[in-house]
Amino acid sequence: MKKLFILLTTLSLLFISTTFISANADGIKNLSKSAILLEAETGTVICKSNEKARLPIASMTKIMLLNLCFENIEQGNLSLDEDITVSKNASGMGGSQVFLEANSKYKAKDLIKSVIIASANDASVALAERLYGSETECVSVMNAKCVEWKLDNTLFSNCTGLPKPTQYSSAEDVAIMLKHLISHKDYFSYSNIWMDEIKHSGDRVTGLTNTNKLVKFYDGCDGGKTGYTSESGFCLAATAKRGGLRLISVVINSPDSKSRFNEVSNMFNYGFDNYTSKMVIDSSKPLEIDVKIGKSKNDKIEIKPINDVFVFSKRNEKEKITIDFNPIEKCAPVSKGEKVGELIVFRSGVEYKRVDVVTTCDVQVKTYFDYIKDIAKNWSL
After folding, report:
1. CATH 3.40.710.10 spans which residues of the chain?
2. Which terminus, N or C, of the chain has the lesser number of Cβ atoms within 10 Å?
């Protein structure tokens, strides 16, 4: 067997240590009944207040519906350009709506856009019926997803967030739902749009204005979901990114609309002022590594990690980060893009994260003529 041995010098650097808050941060005054701030990649909680309380969350319910929409798109079960016929049931939904016409067709992407930007109940039900045949079946899948994600303080009774006595969630669970949602690449194509429109049959147009005002007025905010009913109070789940650091913040039952935006902004400010996320592995930068393969014509190969790795930590405190390379045995030939090992990031000696490493070129088998060249080269020495 021709074995691949890749040698990589261990990298060492000083980096910021991690001292996370488990209670409400100093200087943050929450008027809401429940709140949380976390780092998006790892899910590390920075500050929280009554984060597990079961409360109505109004239209933040749609975060779970949107997760299902994007999952179905990625699985090939729904196309953004697909025409969806709106039922009379969907068009008749009350509350926030974009006034869809019964028996008319709309692109899936326009319905999704209407849910994300304008919190449209009619578009939500139209999507639920398209995906699962009925809103009831969609709700069953939403609740099954809660079990899968261990959202122990969430139960859905509809896909819109309209008031139901048996429907609730928590700031912690909503933050986890939003964390999943922002992992879908198509989500940000809609979430940071401030104003848009949806076209109906004829010349009728409905204007859309993002209910999440932070996408316009907070630097770095590019997504989230608002909610309001008299039962839930004013709610907001939002995400913002500056540099390599992405945060998620959720408040439930703020006393007024201005308060929810101020509370989330203040939590974001605290997070960005006191924490950082440093890139320690850059997937855009290939590494040239010495390699020994029994019958390979390559003395060195170029490899690269498949993902970036960031380390989230508190500012101004230091710890040691080391990165080791763990090679795996391979038989030549090795194809471009084939996994040849993994990089392992350690924080103060404790494993933090692993990322696969692949080749950027083919590793060819040494031919008879290559052996002749090697013999001639060695003889000349």
Report:
1. 34-254
2. C
